[in-house]
């Protein structure tokens, strides 16, 4: 059980945060690390997740606090355990542990916004302070891929870089050994393979790409970006430089697919 393993644990580095923890516990993404709001919203607004009413909540469902500033942005996320308990990682600082808290305790950390501030009423209630809570239930990526309208080689992207992701998790979160240069070289090689596949998609006609395929490609890009958050801390400038260059190329090619789709 992921939550039990991490209870009261503190990451080795700054970065692992609430958005990531909520997605991993829900089995949307595979590893604990840093997740920025863009990645969180990418999944929450995808076919993998649906919004819930409060009475539908079950263990592992995602609760999230949103702000209107001026566009809706996520401020915090956590996993429901029960009516009186949630699992949360409050902030990115490595001094903050993964913990179980009551909703009231979470509320005190994040703006003291009442839990009954929801999208339908928060604007009319001064005590909501421009914030509202929203709840989601998500299926796992494995479950999504079973029925996704995507070619097999694109579905296979889900496990392409998982060895790198798990190695970074072991180092950044669980205080294990730093990834070896051999593993990082293998990761960069597979990242080039990912770029080649995206280029193949573009050359074969991006207008033939399904929405599910675009979602899978974007998801892996965001996962690699999040997992690579700490590559800069590895004392080998060439690794980080090549990683940064490849990610820039990949981002450009994915944007081209979306533009032509």
Helix and strand succession? HHHEEEEEHEHHHHHH
How would you classify the helix and strand content by structural class?
alpha+beta
- How would you write the strand order of the largest sheet? 1-6-2-3-4-5
Distance between the termini: 40 Å
| Shape by Cα distribution | globular
Report on the biggest sheet. 6 strands, antiparallel
Instruction: List the uncertain runs.
Output: none
Strand percentage, roughly?
5-15%
**Helix amount:** 40-55%
What's the pLDDT, averaged over the residues? 93
Structure description:
The protein is built from ten helices and six strands; from the N terminus they run H-H-H-E-E-E-E-E-H-E-H-H-H-H-H-H. The chain has helices spanning 2-6, 18-25, 37-44, 103-109, 141-147, 152-155, 162-172, 181-203, 211-227, 237-260, and strands at 49-52, 62-68, 72-82, 85-89, 98-101, 131-138. A six-stranded antiparallel β-sheet has the order 1-6-2-3-4-5. A hairpin with a 2-residue loop joins strand 3 and strand 4 (85-89). The longest helix has 24 residues, at 237-260.
Topology:
Elements (H helix, E strand, L loop, with lengths): L1 H5 L11 H8 L11 H8 L4 E4 L9 E7 L3 E11 L2 E5 L8 E4 L1 H7 L21 E8 L2 H7 L4 H4 L6 H11 L8 H23 L7 H17 L9 H24 L1
Antiparallel strand pairs: 1-6, 2-3, 2-6, 3-4, 4-5
Structural features:
261 residues, alpha+beta, six-stranded antiparallel β-sheet, 10 helices, 6 strands, globular
Structure in a nutshell:
This protein has 261 residues and is of the alpha+beta class. It is 44% helix and 15% strand.
């Amino acid at each position: 059980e992921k939550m039990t393993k991490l209870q009261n644990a503190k990451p080795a580095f700054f970065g692992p945060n609430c958005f990531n923890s909520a997605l991993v516990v829900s089995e949307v993404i595979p590893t604990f690390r840093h997740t920025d709001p863009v990645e969180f919203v990418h999944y929450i607004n995808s076919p993998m997740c649906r919004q819930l009413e409060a009475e539908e909540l079950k263990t592992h469902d995602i609760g999230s606090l949103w702000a209107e500033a001026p566009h809706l942005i996520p401020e915090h996320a956590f996993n429901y355990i029960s009516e009186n308990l949630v699992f949360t990682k409050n902030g990115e600082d490595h001094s903050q542990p993964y913990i179980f808290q009551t909703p009231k305790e979470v509320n005190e950390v994040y703006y003291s916004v009442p839990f009954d501030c929801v999208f339908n009423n928060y604007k009319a209630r001064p005590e909501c302070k421009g914030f509202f809570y929203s709840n989601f239930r998500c299926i796992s990526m494995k479950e999504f891929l079973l029925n996704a309208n995507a070619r097999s080689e694109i579905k296979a992207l889900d496990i392409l870089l998982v060895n790198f992701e798990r190695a970074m998790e072991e180092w950044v979160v669980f205080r294990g050994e730093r990834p070896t240069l051999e593993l990082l070289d293998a990761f960069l090689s597979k990242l080039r393979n990912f770029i080649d596949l995206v280029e193949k998609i573009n050359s074969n006609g991006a207008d033939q790409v399904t929405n599910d395929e675009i979602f899978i490609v974007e998801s892996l890009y965001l996962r690699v970006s999040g997992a690579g958050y700490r590559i800069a801390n590895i004392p080998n400038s060439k690794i980080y430089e090549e990683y940064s260059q490849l990610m820039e190329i990949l981002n450009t090619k994915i944007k081209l697919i979306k533009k032509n789709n």
